[in-house]
Fold these 2 entries.
Entry 1:
Amino acid sequence: MPDTHGSTAMSAAGGTATTTRLLEVEGLTSTYGPVRALDGVSLSAEAGRITAVLGANGAGKTTLLRTISGLVRPVAGRVVLDGEDITKAPVESMVAKGMAHVPEGRGVISELTVDENLRVGALFRGKVDRSEFDRVYDLFPRIAERRNNAAHTLSGGERQMLVIGRALLAKPRVLLLDEPSLGLAPRIVAQIFGLLRQLVDSEGLSVLLVEQNARSALSVADVGVVLNLGRVVVTDSARTLMADEDLRHAYLGF
Amino acid sequence: MSDLQSPASTGQAGKATDEPPVKATAGGDAPSGPAATGRTFLPQSTLLRHLLVLAVCAVLAVLALELSSPYQNSQLATLSYYAIAAGGLTVLTGMNGQISLGHGALMAAGAYTTALFLDAEEPLPLPVILLAAVVVATAIGALVGVAAARLHGPYLAGATLALAVGLPGLAIYFHDILGGEQGMRVRAPQAPESFESFIDAVSGNSASSTKWLAYVGAICLLITYFFLANLVRSRIGRTWRAVRDQEVAAELAGINLGAWRVLAFVVSAAAAGLAGGVLAIVVRLAAPSGFTIVLSLALLTAIVIGGLGSLFGALLGSALLVFLPPFVTNLGGDLGLDQTEAAQLAPFVYGVVLIVVMIFVPAGLVGTIRLRWMTRKAKRAMARAGADDTGSRR
Amino acid sequence: MDYFVNVTLTGLTQGMIYAAFALALVLIWRSTRIVNFAQGSMAAATTFIALALIQAGASYWVALIVALASGFVLGAIVERVIIRPVEGGPELNAVIVTLGLFVAIQAGIAIIFGSSFQSFPTPFGVRGFEVGDTTIPLTPTSLYIIGSVLIVMALLVALFRFTRVGLAMRASAFSQEVARLLGVKVGGMLTLGWGLAAVVGSLSGLLIAGGTFVWPAYMDALIVFGFVAAIIGGLDSPVGAIVGGLILGLALSYVSGYAPRGSALVNISALVILIVVLLVRPGGLFSSTTARRA
């Protein structure tokens, strides 16, 4: 593992008050035709932290992630990754810059096998030692058993494990996750979120987690950002948001 | 009908181009080009309005034919059969979102039918023969249409391409009757005596056989466009557009998609059959080499240039098919190409035009102009008219 | 009996060519959801380049290599310049663009190389091998055709199965967005895919030309045959394309060999087969899908 994101250093940073703003989003505005899906969104994601972006359907959560990773080009605003302005960088270059995006609907390439899916995730790094794949399989024994099966035979939970594992093979510093809980049984969601927490704590990863399932997301996140109609309504610690009953009723639906 | 369609213009209407929905709503009054400009003092009834336009166009046609040279007469005759076929194809591709590369083959069906009937000892009257050409092409079109109704996009293009390549082969198989590679010479139909006196009364020009054929073409063209324009504005035309733009919604509304697609194919096949009949008598020959895939692609070029879905555009595009080849062939000659090489410049230009139009102005000439006009109108009408803009960008 | 074997072998040989052409169509369809109707014209263009070289005194093999290489370049340029702007747009637009390319290239060939019939050489004989004192209906040329198509297919399989570029190409073909997010340069992969497909298409053009005549439109029928073969195989499946090509080759050979004046019926038979397949098994013989909708 390169020294820039040595796990001990990062988790130490994440634990103390001096946090590193790995990803910063400033005044991001994106439109679909006449509709403003994002309207001046600013937020940041810190190393060793899980930042949950919450809000109802259509609040702009998915557009936010797609704009950050360049799939949607913003009409205004900036995206800064570790000091580098990546607003106009090509989508293909993001992962090499240390940002992995797991899209909505999981992004499994269902025609490829499980192992091939993982290999695609590591392609941009050139030769990758087999042991790194073994580490992912150790992390997710369930997909290890199915490594030579076509990915479309996997269950929803297994797919989620596959895409997270695949993203990890890219050795990202920032992980963008779009609705990982969608369509999964609560038990599996808890399992995946638990694992995510572990990874963040041990590797100093920064996770930007988009979720409609606000309750689960806040239970694992450090910081919560609530979006409504493309604008940030509130940014606060997850605990504070959990405690704010009015806000929960108004925007989070629980 | 407009409120039914507007959501499709920005949405998933991934079919034809995204413009036709917008255009189709505008297109209501546009198929009869002149009508669009002065419709304030035209009758409210569509049929009456179209009849009036028909009369005006008939006068214009006579003027055009009498004020031009014999060579130009024959060019206009050529224009008429291209335009008839392109009009039919516009209904299919523009209105209903289906593509066909088989219209050249359907024209062949009409042309061979005409040739066979004219070959008889005592040929039937010309209108009857042309009607027979229409019937034969329609029957083939119905057969193809049934298969085509279940296909879309590349599948349909490939299937009709197979038709275009395959059908002329029948002429070789039945070479005893259809003349094989050489094809059939077509006997020129005799002009009735009334035609002579008509021309004499109108202009005093000589009523040559070329002129007679040009008139036959013009009459067929006017009838076809009158019929198609009314069809497009009718409930049938609206249903076609619904089938094209809102496949799922139309199906949920109880519209039998397949049947409507077959109908579109049948109507356009009928036009192709008539076009083939006119071609046969104008060219005096029905041979496989006259109905290659290049013919089908030329027709496609005509409707793409004109803007998919506009009859006026189809006419304009057909005019280009007639007047462009001599122009570029001369150009090629000036550039030092020999005659056979220069003759290939026209199809070369068709191909380039197809590519360029699709990449830069997918709405075609008429479509783009109309879209601009529509957008301006829409912007004036309501403040939030962004939808049209997004449509034009794709 | 001899006649039957002869007709069957002819069918298999032709079928291999159709298979190669269908494979080229399938490669492009899988990656860009576009049927490249210009494939035949593009192959014809490279065949004429080869012919020009041979007429200038080059050996068949040099001409073959140059033609295949120019096929690659042509395919890549076409994707970059002409297809890229309509990729992902309305499917009718892409269809019309490839059709435009079809006529433009065909006319371009006629302008540059002339539109007359010209004979194209074959590197091997067209007389059957002799075993003892009987001539078996297997010719060196048909062996060459079958062998070269098999070699190309094996190379493609190796590329897609065992190389990193192949994996990246497959990922791009199946899921462009995911591949881009994973850092795969999808644009480059699509260009490469079109280039490779054009090489395979060119090969089939060169093979079918061998020992017979070429003219600018000589590939028109092969576009149809290749398309029909690809449809039989389901348009999505490389293996299906190959099987489809062989089935079609045999079927057309039997029609041509047994029906009275059958050779005039070959094209129309392809049409009939196509329509039957589309109506009975719209997803092709090798797929489980039944409907074909946008």
Entry 2:
Amino acid sequence: MSSETATVQKAEMAGASGLLNCQDIEKSIAAAAELLPSQGPITAFAFLNPLQGMEDIPFDEALRSVGEIYGCAPYLDEARYIAKLQRGRISVEELRAVLAEDPDESANELIADLVARKDLRLNMLQYPLYTGDERELQWVIAETDALQRFRREISHEVRDHLIEETRHWIMRDLRKARSGELQQHTPELAQALQDAVDQFPVASIEDWDDSIWERLCLNLMWRFVQQGVLMGDPGSRPSNGNQRHSELFRKVTGVDPDKLVHDVLIRFCAAYLDQGFAHWKLPDRQAGFFNSFCRLFGQTAAVGSVWLRQLPAELNRIQTAGLTPVQCIAESLQLLGVTQEEIPCYLRSCLLALRGWCGMIWQTEVRPDRVYIASPPGTLTEFLAVRLILDRLALQHCAKDVLNWQGAAGQLREDLEKQVVHKPVVNPEQQAFLIFQLAQIHGWLPQTLAEMSVERWTELIREVDSFSSHERRRVFHAAFERRIAHQAMDAVVLRTSAPAIKPERPQLQVVCCIDAREESFRRHLEEIAPEVETFGTAGFFGVPMYYRGAADAHFAALCPIVIKPKHWVIEDVVYSLEESHRTRAKARRVLGAATHSLHVGTRSSVGGAFVSTLLGPLATAPLLSRILFPRLAARMHRTARQFVAPPAVTRLRLEREEGTPAGQEEDQIGFTLTEMATIAERALRDIGLTSNLARLVIFLGHGSSCLNNPHESAYHCGACSGNPGGPNARALAAMLNDGRVRRILRGNGLDIPEETHFIGGLHNTATEEITFYDLELLPTSQVRSLRLAREVFSRVAERNAHERCRRFESASLELAPAEALRHVQERSEDLAQTRPEYGNGTNAICIVGRRSRIRGLYLDRRSFLMSYDATQDDAQSSILARILGAVIPVCEGINMLYTLSAIDSQGWGSGTKLPHNVTSLLGVMDGAASDLRPGLPWQGVDIHEPVRLLFIIETTPESMIRIMDENPVVGRICRNGWAQLAVLNPQKSEILHFRNGQFVPYTPGVSELPSAETSLDWYRGWRDHLAFARIGGADTNGVS
Amino acid sequence: MLTVAGYIVVGSPALLLAIIGLSMLFGHRLTERFLAQLTETSVVTGLIAALMILGMMLLTDVRHVPVELGNWVDIPEEHFHFNVKFLFDRLSVPFVILTFVLCGVIGAFASRYLHRDEGYHRFFLFYALFQLGMILSSVAGTIETLFLGWELVGLSSALLVAFFHSRPNPVMNGQRVWTVYRFADAAFLLGALVLHHLTGAGDFEKLTGAGPWPEGIATISPSNALIVGTLLLIAAAGKSALVPFSGWLPRAMEGPTPSSAVFYGALSVHLGAFLLLRVSPLLEQSLPLRITIVALGLVTAIFAAVTARVQTDVKSALAFASLIQVSIIVVEIGLGFRYVALSHIIGHACMRTLQLLRAPSLLRDYHAMENALGDHLPVNSSYWPGRVSNAASSWLYRFAFERGGLDAMLDEYLLRPFLRVFQWSDRMERRWTTFLSQPASKPASEIPPPGD
């Protein structure tokens, strides 16, 4: 838009300012923001469903629209499902079952009087039909044996039937038709038959062998199908209108105006959101996104791209007119010719075109507590205002440059729309080839095809068309999920029908995180020490807090991302070591300052020259050692660090005086006694640990360690916002050890024996190391128990590492447990390692219930495990309600993020790690400049099987329905199918499966579970996913 | 003995390339482990040979070891010959060792970093190509040999930038790098031709006089030195991303992290400086040439220092930080401090490789520094406090933000005229062909837009 026309337009607009409603625009932006990635800064990795904004509509429906909205794949490629079918991960029976239970369609309906719908569809799934573009097909038909040989998978019977019937038909009818005796064939048909037959040596027709008849049969089928497809009416497909100008422009010309716009926007967003990486801050950042953009780009005498030359004038005009960002959007939309009705869609696609950055802007705006430098409310709107201005200029520039067009942008879009040829997705030739193949598979005779009416052709074409790639993949996916769900439910039903395993007098009780990684940890623990009892609970242990360690600079939120903590906790070095703490802190400060100056120095000019010339060659030492001898380098590093680490003896400052408000100030740190008692009681009651307490109870939070990995936080505890959960476990143990807390609990009917001691610890899921806290407070009488426990843990570490190693291709399957432990430790110390561990990859189920009922079940690290004892709950299931209120959204979020990232790594995930480039200290881009990449990297999900999580909850259907009714989030997730749901009867081994809004009884498909003596016996020598199994044979270890 | 070691130095990367290339050509898929071991063996062999040469040179006090492979093409009546000759001297041996060390480290790193990536084999093919190119350039004894190595480096770099060829950005940036390289190569080729014309051979010995590097004295006249030197300077500027070609350097950060580390951070970007070092006796001959070199280095250093300050992502920041040092090295060469420049190259290459490989650790490093300091890291809020007005600092920020507008400038003043000329030629040709054969011919540029 040149400035004169713009001014004219503006004058017009002033007259009709009510045309585009500013409120509508703001509403549309808010609605679209819900669809943006909700990831936040990568240092506090949030596991949330990437499609969280769509959870209020059913899963299938949402996935039908994501292709258009996000441009990402909703399911895996068909080829990958077919590979699963061939490898036996999906079976034909499951496909048949899924097709049969499609509710909204009549599966048995006969299509074109030829075949039942479900059979047609099953064959379309089972036998991948070849298709290609027009020219490719022509080649296939002309040059391959497509018209000479039947498809390979066709059975002998079908083949013989086809050949025999064709022979009869030709021998009987063709001759008569030739002699004019037979009148039922139209002349065209007779001619077609004649043409087909004439390709072969007609004279010897009686001596033809099967191969000639086969060719003739195929030729006839192909002819008739071609004719039939041309007769039938494929119907029209809805065209997707409301496209953005740049989108259309790219489709028509191959030039993408968005590229120009994004080039500027990416750098500007990065500068605006920068949390302190760049040496120079964006000038006037505090003036807001829109204003700082206007000032930076409003300068007239600046260098820059050609297409930006109009920008200063345009920005100055807007500023002089005093337009607010929203008014500016309204103006741009009008100039672009966007109508009132289009606004929501148009703005949505404007935001989603750069969704990583937009999502981050939105997150810094709505969750300022998560970042150091936040954005004021309205920043996303300001972004959009800027984007639309740039869109206009880029479009104008490209239109002039490429098409030599100089009119209004709205007009341009109409013109472009006309030029975009709305090609049907499948053209007649392709359609015909599909049906030709189906005809072979089903054995439809050439005669039948020749005699089909127009209506039947139409029906057939539409039917084939309607079972589109998306629908086929949906069925494949459903069958795949169904298989894993059934396997899981079979395993649970069969296991629970055997007696529960519960040590009568547990020597040790270990409470782990719900995390799927802890499944194998707990299983090995129970295998090695039958007298140990384990529990699972959300890894923040019910202690939401902002925490700052003795050597930390800042508070970190240790609780699920959906919770905003209200308490602050600090780690103090004990008084007697304060002096040493001060010296070491000082040493750290000096070292830190030196590191920082080196960091800055090597990037500067003169300093850099000196540093690199003089010290540069020294860099070979860390370079070579880190990469060639990672183990040694890591050990040296650790030893060196110990000299300046804070002293080992520390305490959490946990208690706050009753009556003071919680806060960050000196006397506001911690919880009051009442709060502590509430937290402690709830933590024990949630997992049903209210009686029979062992002398030693260990709470194990978990974290992970790895090097050179921007996604480090994604390996930590998801329930602690991507931080290690050790401090939470430590805090809970300290509260429960407090005599005053115990007294209050005793008053509430929860009696903790005098001799019971609680310990908090941290399980490193990468190195299998376990750290315990506050051991100097351990009573002498307990030392022996702890020593024994540690011995057990060290054996568990080896076994667990060994089981994990089976999934790492670079670890040999022949490793011994001790070697396996070394291998996993090496991984976490290797600068070049992109897979320090697999996190929650492969998660597929979540079991909420008593461990004793499923103890001894090999769940292949695929199950989240939450302890809950239905027999201790009240009639309203209030304990379950509060558990599920957190567990269902948290686990569903983790599962959906893994699943979608595995389905389309580029679209939902962050693609491969290899080109990742940390930007603004907030996230990663691909390479030099790209949209911000939220989601999990390919290296974290390459072994994940994308399925929706199946919750198996030990409760009654009535309670579950009540919980779904009362908790809208839980209801939305379960009812709309974002997770699968089943309930396990607390008394009997019966499962009710939640299907289409109802609980229906589930009948196990097998009567026996495979079993093995130990986990090792079951998984040894196997890389791929394993079936669920019974470990420890029949009812032996520690049965009560 | 020295000659044998010399053959090994060049032969081992060549063999590596041959094995990987041929196995891929014939569709034989090597396992990841075998590929990694092969690469390791090749690098270690080459490195040992290079170290032997170094040792023997130190022991025997020989400073100059030429290894002749003879004329590969020889047309006496046209006075044309393509002479392949390697030279081991005080410049090439350290550079060869540096190349082997860094390539070895990167090879070890990449063999784990790219584990299971579908492009694993492709990466090691390009890697082998690159390593061969680097070695050939380092030990080149004639300008045509240097050109051969130079081209291999350019080709492999462009291919590595476009490594992730399923996304449009890497491909476009790869093409951009390739285009700049071609421009620089054209200058190189012209320079080589002129040199041949002047001295009758591309031999560096003839050019730089008999003495071993760096003591040689060029035998051509100052004015000729200015012409050849300017052409070679353009070539070096393209390769080392000096102004006005600097725009490609940050764009080259599209490939996998290890390739950015070794190619742009460490080796490839120093190749221009290496060329200048190689012909340094020639530079001695012409004062204006030396002044130009110093000026170009200074301008680039200032440009890069300003631009580096606004970069918000770690790889671009490191790219510009590299550029600062490379341009300072160029200044040093211009001033005649050859040993300083050489040791600067070596130190800088090692340091930057480490930094680039550790680039993904940025967040952790920052966290650690903040914890040590007990607060957020200090950020300069103003540029030169009190001295620069708001408007000027805003202008400077914009200048740095746009990376000096160098790319836009190249597009406008270099690319556009080129395109115009060729499009004009196309039109003329079509007119002519239409005249000759009656049906109108189609323009060459009618490429259908990419489908969805």
